[in-house]
Amino acid sequence: MSMLLRCIPLVLLLLLPSLSWGSDFHNALSLQGFTGLLNTPNAETIDEGTIYLTYSNQKEPERRYRITSEDSVNLALGIYDGVELSGRFFDARPYGNGRDLSGNAKLRIPFIPRGPYIPTFAVGIQDVYGGHNASFLKTKYAVASEELWRFRFSLGYGTGPDRMKGTFGGVEFKAADWLYLLAEDDTTEKNVGVRLISPSVFGFPAHIHLTVKSSLDHEPLHPEFAAGLQLPLGLDHNYTKPIPVPTPAPDGKQTEAPSPAIPAAVKAAPTPADAAGLERLVKSLTGDGFQNVRVGYLGTLLLVEYENARYDHNELDAMGVVMGYVQLDAPAPFETVRMVERKKGISVLQIEAPIPVLRAFFQDASNLERLQDNLKISREVADTTGFTFVSGGGNSSYLTTSLWVYPGLKAYVGTEVGVYDYLISVKPDFYVNLWKGAFLDMRADIPVTWSRNFDDGKAFRSDRNSAGVERVMVLQAIKPADTVMMMLGAGLVTTESYGTANEVSWAPGDGTHRFRLLHVYTTGQDKQDKKQEYLASYRYLYTPLDLYLQGTAGKFMTQDRGATFEIKRFWGDTSLTVFYKNAVATDNRNHQAAGIQFDLPLTFRKDMKPGLVQLRGTDDWTYSQETSIAKKNSLNWLGTSIGARLEPPFSTENLFFNRDRLSEPYIRKHLLRLRDAYVRYVVPGEPVTPLP
Questions:
Q1: Which residue, 176, 381, 623, 627, has most beta carbons within 10 Å?
Q2: 361 SS3 class
Q3: Residue 101 in contact with residue 414, Cβ under 8 Å?
């Protein structure tokens, strides 16, 4: 290793003349888990919508002489432009010398213009959850950074007491897009290092990082390292290239689209050729797997009703495909299309647009604003009295079935008994459509593998159930008003309890606000262990950032009483939630916890057609990790469980409203996704975005 370190400067000097120079610095994680150099921060933050996962074997100086090894794992997130959150778990061995789960936060100061000789400023805190007299990494800091040529200089001040107590600083030299040389003074030691950054991995916008660091004050020939992965939280599917969009001629052959303009005069009723176009539209929709399809007309208004059970990442994909077929197949006499989206036979959304405007938008994305101005979106679905419907529709969803197969994961990080404990299972979920709004759900849980603390006689054995049926429920959805949806369910609610799970949600206006009531009642098989959950929540949608703010209060399934506060944001089809819980548990003591939750689809963007049995994954797989907020003289062990909710299977939010994304503001903001789905799934041979 010593020979390798001596050779590194020589190799770099030989490489420098041939290196390519980039203009922007890459904002990578330090070994402490915040953006920065080695152990000190700079004034930048992680790029918005980016996640970093890193591992480091660095030993903290204050523990170095009494431990044999130390492992640190960091998870960092770019929540917004200039806002960074991260969590860190470290384990120092032998046990007893330190094990803790903590959080970091960093804010780049806004409203400071970027330009030559104008530094960037940031403030941050490390070990935000550390209990008094139990913290290991705690500090607060302010830092400024300035880029000059290929250098970025940083200077800051930290309050300590555990890290960066006093003035710290460092410099980064960008030798190439993939190579950085680093040097710093972290107030305890002076460090130097090298950081390597890989290009995109197989065309996916992800990068692998490797940092090698050595202290100049302690065994400089025995370096420590960090390795990590950077990737986007989600992908926006926006397709903006112009495409020639064919339109039907009277003989049924396709021709190039004329310049889109709304016809001055139209026929009162479709001709035989127009009727053939309507039948072609029905066949296109049913052939693509849409259910409960109806196509009708009233004068120059074309009505298309459909139910999507195939495009499972986002309902906007289904909208884009349906709109694509409409602007391809709709006969010339029809000026306007009214699309009605259904779920379980219940109409949940209505969209109207001039057909020539749709054609213009699908042909060229520059017509986006024109579509915005002419689009009408409402949860108030108009009556169909007076419409003439085309024969041949259908694809009824009655008694169709789906088998959803997806993984289950229980994970405990940094507990008193282990560094990381896990239980992985397979969850087959069988789903049968019954009558309008009703369905049967049966789910099993089959444990596959687990860590030793889930073994018999170990700490988490009670959390490992034997393979068996986990849920059997019949659920009935009811829409008593345009903006109100109810879900009533009864049956085997959990493995060992029967009961009911009911909810009602109300989203007035355009869906910016939503109110929700939830009630769950369960009783054990011996009819002794009875539990109730009753919660009320309010959610606000801030559309420019796809940001959801939600507060929930009441009695939770763990029988604690209190409140939770959540901030959720979508990147593509992945959502990230940061939450805080505060409740009085059954021990009559107040407990607090905070954590993060990821929700993402674990299935194809376009699944197999519905049929006798449709095999697919889940469109909303959830993983969360939380830590108790440490009290005085305590560590951040997993404490008393609080704020745990038992949700009805297939809640109204997920089943009917596209994971709470079927609101007018969300749809208007993401209209380019409609076009992306059309290009990917309807237009043959057209190149699209790289991922499914």
A1: 627
A2: helix
A3: yes
Q: Would you state the structure tokens that stand for residue 610, as one six-digit string? A: 């519905």
Burial pattern 502-512, b for ≥16 Cβ within 10 A else e, equals bbbbebeebbb
Output the CA angle 672-674-675, nearest 5 degrees: 70
Q: Tell me the pTM.
A: 0.85
C-alpha 325/C-alpha 323 separation (Å) is 5
Cα–Cα distance measured from residue 54 to residue 403, given in angstroms and rounded to the nearest whole number: 36
How far apart CA 269 and CA 246 sit, in angstroms, is 23
8 Å CB contact between 344 and 654: no
**Between vectors from CA 86 to CA 81 and to CA 90, what angle results, nearest 5°?**
160
Contact 278, 270 (CB under 8 A): yes
For residue 303 the two structure tokens come to: 């009505």
Polymer length in residues for the chain: 692
Structure token pair of residue 429: 């979920």
SS3 477: strand
The Cα-based distances of 365 to 161, 246, 257, 341 in angstroms read: 55, 16, 15, 24
| Sequence-ordered list of residues with C-beta below 8 angstroms from that of 293, at least 6 positions apart, any chain | 282, 285, 286, 304, 305, 306, 307, 393, 394, 395
Average pLDDT estimate for 648-667 = 90
pLDDT-derived band at 19 (thresholds 50, 70, 90) equals very low
Residue 395 tokens read as 């694809």
* 67 residue type, one letter: I
Cα-Cα-Cα-Cα dihedral sign, residues 252, 258, 261, 266 = negative
3-state SS class at 208: strand
Helices (H), 532-655: 652-655
- One-letter amino acid at 430 equals F
- Say how far apart CA 47 and CA 67 lie, in whole Å: 35
Q: Which residue has the higher pLDDT, 632 or 660?
A: 660
126 within 8 A of 108, measured Cβ to Cβ = no
Distance CA 361, CA 372 (A): 10
Cis status, amide bond into 161, omega within 30 of 0 = yes
Q: d(Cα 677, Cα 322) in Å, to the nearest integer?
A: 10
Residue 446, token pair as written in the block = 């089959």
Q: Percent of the chain scored above 70 by pLDDT?
A: 88
> Residue 467 is which amino acid?
A
Whether residue 659 contacts residue 621, with contact meaning beta carbons closer than 8 Å, is answered with no
315 in Cβ contact with 337 (< 8 Å): no
Helix axes 355-363, 315-329, angle to 10 degrees: 110
Least confident of 9-23, 408-422, 533-547: 9-23
Write b or e for each residue in 40-54: b if 16 or more Cβ atoms lie within 10 A of its Cβ, otherwise e.
bbbbbbbebbbbbeb
CA distance 329 to 279: 9
Tens of pLDDT, residue by residue over 163-199, are 899 999 999 999 998 999 999 999 999 999 999 999 8
Residue with tokens 């109806």: 294
Q: If DSSP codes are grouped into helix, strand and coil, which group holds residue 243?
A: coil
Q: Which of 645, 626, 644, 646 is nearest to 636 (CA)?
A: 626
pLDDT at 313: 94
Please provide the CATH number assigned to the domain covering 2-232: 2.40.160.40
Contact status, residue 43 vs residue 252, Cβ threshold 8 Å: no
Q: Where are the domains of the chain?
A: 2-232, 246-396+674-681, 473-661
CA gyration radius for the chain? Answer: 29
Helix axes 315-329, 671-681, angle to 10 degrees: 70
Nearest CA to 218 out of 426, 61, 391 is that of 61
> CA 521 to CA 518: how far, in whole Å?
10
- Going by their DSSP bridges, the two strands 401-413 and 420-433 should be labelled as antiparallel
